[in-house]
Specification:
Number of helices of chain A: 16
Structural class of chain A: alpha/beta
Oligomer: homotetramer
Shape of chain A: globular
Number of domains of chain A: 2
CATH architecture of the largest domain in chain A: 3-Layer(aba) Sandwich
Radius of gyration of chain A: 22 Å
Distance between the termini of chain A: 32 Å
Helix content of chain A: 40-55%
CATH superfamily of the largest domain in chain A: Adenosylhomocysteinase-like
Strand order of the largest sheet of chain A: 9-8-7-10-11-14-13-12
CATH topology of the largest domain in chain A: Rossmann fold
Largest interface: B-C, 42 and 42 residues
C-alpha cells in the first residue's frame, strides 16, 4: 500500500479536474461543510479521491467505504488514510460481507450527509428505522440503480430524509455515457487487443446513450458500424445517422467486433453466438456483466484460455475461436482506466453542489427523492464553458 | 394552372413515399374512411397532395385549404381539383382574409376529421360553439404552434373533441428537424449562392434539434462549425461534439455563414450585425421569419438589392456588404423545396394513422389534447425499417 | 441576351473570388499584359467572365470563344461583349462547326497568349504550321484532355511554343475534384430530386480524387457509402476509410443512388443495370457523359419520360423504374451551377499567374509542355491562406 | 526470458495476421526459400516474429538481430530461439556496440537474402567489399532511412546486389501512417493520460500522411483540430477538410494537446513552448525523438518529474506545467504497442513477396535500388480485399 503512489495518481487527476479546483477555492474560504460528517460509498480510485479531498477541504469529516470490492485501489486507500479527518475502511478484493460490515460502520458514524453509488448506505440506514437517520440532512445518489432503490424505499415509507437524484442531472446522463463510455470503451478494446478498428465491421447492440457514444467513436476510428435496437424509433435514428440497422443474428454473423450496451441480461447467449464469425471480439459496455452470457459460452466451448491480459479465447467444437475482452464486465473499467478524468470532474462537481444544496436547505426539503436542481445543473455547465473559454480556474 | 405538371410532381413524390404506398394498399382494401368528411389545412405542395390522395383512397370526401398563402402551389391545387370528392379552395398569394374565408367554408363542410398545420380550423370551430364540432370525431395537428393553440382552447373549455398532438410523436420531432432541416437548409444555401462550404466558418445560432442537424451537415460538408446556445448544458454538448462554442458577438465576427434556429425573435438585430464580416451570408432555419431582423438591417443600410434569386445584398454605410438568403424566412422553403420527400412520408404517415385512430375510437376518446399513441409511432418506425431492409412495399 | 443580368451574375462571382480581387489590384497597377492579345477558349459562364475581365484589367486585348456549345451562357456573352477590347464569338447551342469556325477566327486574331480548356486552339494553330504561332509566347491549358493533346503535338514536332500544364498544379488537381465535385454533385442531386440522402445506400463507382470527394460528402450527409474501384490498392484505402468495398453487381443491387466517376466509357451498361433496384437514381460526376450507357438503357426500356427537370425515368419491361439525373452528363453542371465559385477562383488564379509567367519569360522558355511552376502553385496557396486568415483582400 | 509468454504473444498476433496465414500455406507447400539463408534485422516484437516464422516455414534458415536496442522484447527472442534453424542474437537494452557486433555475425552467416529496417546490414556488407555479398541475391528494405542509405551506397558504387524499396509500396506508405499511426498514437495518448479528447483543442504539427491520420482520428474522437504545415498547399488541403489552419505560435497558445509529425528536428523548442498553455500535453508521432526539444525544455524548467507512467511534468519558472508523453519518442511505441497488428500483417506480407521476388529472379535483377513491383503491391491489396469480403483464409 504505497500512499505516495496513490498521492501521485490523485495529483494527476486533480490537475485535470478544473471544476474541483474552482470549487475547492470557494469551499476552503467558506467552509460550508464545517461540523458535518459525510459518509461516502463510491469506487475508490483517484478521481473519487479528489472529490473526497474537496469535501474535506470544505470542512467536513469523512467516513469512506468502497462501493465494489474490485474497483477499490489500495494505494488510493492508503493515500486517503493519511489525512486527518478522513476515515477509510476498504480493501481491494475484500469479501462482500466485509464490505457491508464497513457500510455498517459508516452508519455508526452517524453521517449528516451521504454521497453514494448504488444505495447500500440508504438501505442500511432504512434497516435501523428513522432513528438511524436522525442526524442526516440528505443523501446524494449517483447511479440509476441507487435511485431506483431510493424510490422503492420511499414507496415503502422507509426513506426518512431528502435524497437528490444526481444521476438525473442533464450534465450527468447526457455526457458520461456518450463521451465517457464511447471513448474509454474503445481505448480499452484497442489497448487489450492491439487490433485495427479502421475497416472493421463493428456491431453495437443497444442504441441508447451508451450505444450512441460507442457507434460515434467506432465510426470516428474508421469502422463500418452496424446497430441493433429493439426500439424501432431508435433503430430509425441509427439508420439516419448512416449506420446499418440489422437484426441481431445477421449483425453477429457480419461483425468483427461486438459491443453490448443494452442493460439487459443474456442478450448474447451461447446460441446467438453460434452465428458469430471465427475470431470475433466480444465486449460489454453496459453497467452489469451479464449482457454476454460467458458462463453459458464456456459450457458450450471446448476450452477457455487467457491469450492476452484481459482477453480470453473460447475454442468452440466447430473450430471457431471467440474472444471476450474484460471478462464481459464493463470493458472501460475491466480493461482500462474507466471514464476520462474530465467526465468525472463534471459528475462529481454535481455531487459537490448537491451536498451543498442539502446542507443549506437542512430541515426545509421534505423526505423523498428530489430531482437534481436545474440551476445547479446549469452552474456546472457554466463552469465547464468558462474552462473551455480559457478562463483562469485558480 | 397546369394540372398535368401538378400530377407529374405528385407522381414523383408518391414514387418516393413508400409508407404512403404501403398504407394506401391497406386503405383501398379496407375503406376505413368511407362516409367520413375530412377537412385539411396544410401547405399545398406535392408531398401534401400525396397525403390527401391517400386519405381519399381510404374512402373519405375531402375539403382542402392552404395553411399559408405563399406555400400554396397552383399546379398542385389544379391537380387535386380534378379529383371527384376533393374540394379545394386555395390560391398562391391569396390574402390572409381570403384564406380565412376558405377555412370558414371548410367548417361549413362539417368535417368529421380535421388534419391541420397551425390550428386555424380548430380556432374557427371553437368560435362556433360546441355545435360547430357536432360531426367531428377528432383533430390531428402537426405543428408545435397548433398544439399550443389546442392546449389554450382546452384550458378555456372550448375544445369539444379529442385532438391528437402528431407533432409530439418521436418519429416526428426526432427526425424532421435533424435530418430534414439539416440537409434541406444547406441544399438551399448552396443552390442560392453557388459557394463552397468546405473550409468556411459557419455559425449555428441555437443548438436545439434544428441546430444539431444544421451543425452536423455543415461539418459533413467540411465547414468549421461554431455554436451559440443560451442553455449552458446544450453549449457543453456542442463543445463535446467538437464544435467551437462562442458568444454571439464573437461568433458573428468570425463567421462566413450564419444560420439561426432559435425560435426567438430578433436574435440577430442590426446592432449585433455590426460585428459581422464583410460578405457574411445570413440565413434562417427557424419556423418564423423574425429571427434575423432584416427590416431593422434595411433601415441601417444604404441600399438593398437582389443580387441572385433569393439573395439580397445589404450595403452598409461602413462599406461592408451583408447578404441575406431567402428573405430571412425558413431557408429550405424560401430558397429550396422544403423537407426531403421521405421525411414528409414519415410525418404524413403519422397523420394517416392518427386519422384512423380517431375514427376507430370515435366516441371513446374524451375531448382534450391527446399524446401521440406510442404503438402508432412504433408502427411507422417499423414501416421505415422494413423499407430500409428492402422489403417489398407494393 | 440580357447584359445586365449577365453583369449581375459576374458581380456575384467576383465578390466571392478574393484571389482575383487581389491579383486585379496588382495587374491594374502594373499592366503586365499591356500590348498582349490573349485568346480564350473556356466554358463561358460567370466565373470565367471574372477571369476574362481580370486579364483585361491587366492590359490585354482579348478574343473569346466557348469550349462547349452547351456550357455557354448568352447573358455572360452579352455582358462581355459590352467591354471595349473584348471580342466574343459564342452562342449557346451553336453547332460544333460554328464553334470551330470561331476558334479559327481566334487564331486569325494572332494571339500572343492562349488560355484554354481542351486544346482546340492548340490543334488549330498546329494546322497552320509554325507561322501560325509566330506571335505566340505561350499556351496555358486547364484540362487533362488538353494536356494530352499538347503532348501528342509535341511528340509530332508540331508544338512550336511553350505550353504550361495548369491542370497539373497541386492547387488544381488536389482541390477541385475532392472539394468542388464532391459538394456540387450532391447539391445538384439533391436539387434535382428533393430526396433524403441520410440513411440511403450510395454507391460510388471509381475512387479517384472525384470519387473520394463524392464518398466524403455522401458520408457527411448521412449516407451509408459503398465503393467500387478496379485498383485493389484504392479499394483497400476506401475500406480503411470505413466505406464498404463491393463488386459492381453487388453494389448496384444494394444502392439507392449510384454515382460514377471512373473516366471510363460504359461502366454502367444496360446489362449491369439489370442488377439495379426499382427506383434507383443514377448520376455521373466524371468528365464525359459516356460512363452510364443511357442510349443502351433506353433501347432496353419500354419508355423514357422526364419526370422532374433533369430527371428521366426509364421504365423497364420487368416493371422497375430507373431514374437518370442530368442526362448522364457531369451532374454538377447538367443539374446545377458547376463548381463552387471559390474553387474556380483558385483554378483561374493559377491561370492568371501562368499567363504572367509565359509573358515574363517570353523567348526564354523552350517549346514543349512545361510543368506548372511550383513557386506559383505555392503563391496561390498562400493567397488562399491569407484570405482564410482574414487578411484584407482589397 | 519466458519463451511461453513470447509464444502466446506471437500466437495472438498470428491469429490476426490473415495474410501471413494465407501465405504460410503456400510457402509450406512450395518451400520456395529452401536452401536460402535469410538475415533479418528488425524490431523484435511479436508481429515481426510472425514474419520470421513464416519465412522459416517457407524453408529458410534465419539469422536474426534487432534493429533498435529498446524495441527488442526478450520473451520474443526466447520464443524464436527455441526454433531449430533460427539463430537469434539480441537483448533488450544491449549497447549499440553489441548490437552492431550482432550485425557483423549476421554478415558472417553469409545470407542469401537480407530483410531489414534501417540499412545497418547493407552498410556492414558494403564495408566488406563485393565478396561480402557474394552469396546474396537481394536486400528488402522497409524504411525511408534505409532506402536513403541504399541509394547512397548505389551512388558510391558499393551496392553489389539488387535491393527492393519495400517502403515505397503503395500498400505501405498509403496505409501505415494514416491508419496505423493515427489510431495507435491516440490510443497511446489516451492510455497514458486517461484524459478526454472530445471538446479539446488539438494541434497537429505537420500535415503529411502521419499528420492526416492524426487529424482524422482526433476529429473522430470529438476534438477541435488545428493544423500547422509549412507547405501552403498542404495547409489549404487541411483547411478544406474543415480543420483550422494556424501559425505555430498561435496554435501552441490555443492547444490542449500538441502532436508533432514533421520529420524535422527541434520543431517545438523551449522558446516556442513559451506560448503553450498551462497543462498542455505534448507528444511526438514522427519517426525520430528530436521533434520536441525536451532536453532544451528541461534546461529551461525548474524540475521534471514522472507523474504517470510515460508522462513527465516540466515545471516552468512562470508557474506553468507542461506534460510530455512517451519522452518525445514515437508515442505509439513509447507509450503503447505500436502499429495495430493488421497493419504489420500488410507491411510484412509485402516483405514476404519481396523475398520471393528476389529469390525467383536471382541473377536476373541488376544491382541497384528497385521500386516495389506494382503487381506484388496489387497482390497484397487483393489479399486484404479477399479477407474483408470474408473469404476463407485457411
Amino acid at each position: 500500500m504505497d500512499a505516495d503512489f496513490g498521492m501521485k495518481k490523485i495529483a494527476w487527476a486533480q490537475a485535470h479536474m478544473p471544476l474541483h479546483r474552482m470549487l475547492r477555492k470557494r469551499l476552503e474560504r467558506e467552509q460550508p461543510f464545517a461540523g458535518h460528517r459525510i459518509g461516502v460509498a463510491l469506487h475508490l480510485e483517484a478521481k473519487t479521491a479528489v472529490l473526497i479531498l474537496t469535501l474535506h477541504a470544505g470542512g467536513a469529516e469523512l467516513f469512506v467505504v468502497g462501493s465494489n470490492p474490485w474497483s477499490t485501489q489500495d494505494e488510493i486507500v492508503a493515500a486517503l488514510a493519511q489525512q486527518e479527518g478522513i476515515h477509510v475502511r476498504a480493501q481491494r478484493g475484500e469479501s462482500e460481507r466485509e464490505r457491508l460490515q464497513h457500510v455498517e460502520r459508516l452508519v455508526d458514524f452517524a453521517p449528516t450527509v451521504v454521497v453514494e453509488d448504488g444505495g447500500d448506505v440508504a438501505v442500511a440506514l432504512a434497516e435501523r428505522g428513522s432513528e438511524g437517520s436522525s442526524a442526516l440532512v440528505g443523501i446524494c445518489e449517483e447511479t440509476t440503480t441507487g435511485v431506483e432503490r431510493l424510490h422503492a424505499l420511499a414507496r415503502d415509507g422507509r426513506l426518512w430524509v431528502p435524497a437528490v437524484a444526481v444521476n438525473d442531472a442533464r450534465m450527468k446522463h447526457l455526457l458520461d455515457n456518450r463521451y465517457g463510455t464511447g471513448q474509454s470503451s474503445w481505448e480499452a478494446i484497442m489497448r487489450a487487443t492491439n487490433l485495427l478498428i479502421a475497416g472493421k465491421t463493428v456491431l453495437i447492440v443497444g442504441y441508447g446513450w451508451c450505444g450512441r457514444g460507442l457507434a460515434l467513436r467506432a465510426a470516428g476510428l474508421g469502422a463500418r458500424v452496424l446497430v441493433v435496437d429493439a426500439d424501432p424509433v431508435k433503430a430509425v435514428e441509427a439508420a439516419l445517422e448512416g449506420y446499418e440497422v440489422v437484426m441481431l443474428p445477421e449483425g453477429i454473423a457480419k461483425a468483427d467486433f461486438v459491443v453490448t450496451a443494452t442493460g439487459r441480461s443474456g442478450v448474447l447467449d451461447a446460441e446467438m453466438l453460434n452465428h458469430a464469425k471465427d475470431g470475433v471480439l466480444l465486449a460489454n459496455a453496459g453497467h452489469f456483466g451479464y449482457e454476454i452470457d460467458l458462463p453459458g459460452l464456456e459450457k458450450a466451448s471446448e476450452s477457455v484460455t487467457e491469450v492476452r491480459p484481459e482477453v480470453h479465447a473460447y475454442t468452440m467444437p466447430d473450430g471457431r475461436t471467440l474472444f471476450a475482452i474484460g471478462r464481459g464486465e464493463l470493458v472501460n473499467l475491466a480493461a482500462g482506466d474507466g471514464h476520462p478524468v474530465e467526465i468525472m470532474d463534471i459528475s462529481f462537481a454535481l455531487q459537490l453542489l448537491a451536498v451543498g444544496h442539502v446542507i443549506s436547505l437542512a430541515g426545509e426539503l421534505p423526505p423523498g427523492v428530489h430531482p437534481y436542481p436545474p440551476e445547479l445543473d446549469a452552474e456546472v455547465a457554466r463552469m465547464v464553458l468558462a474552462k473551455l473559454a480559457g478562463e483562469q480556474t485558480g
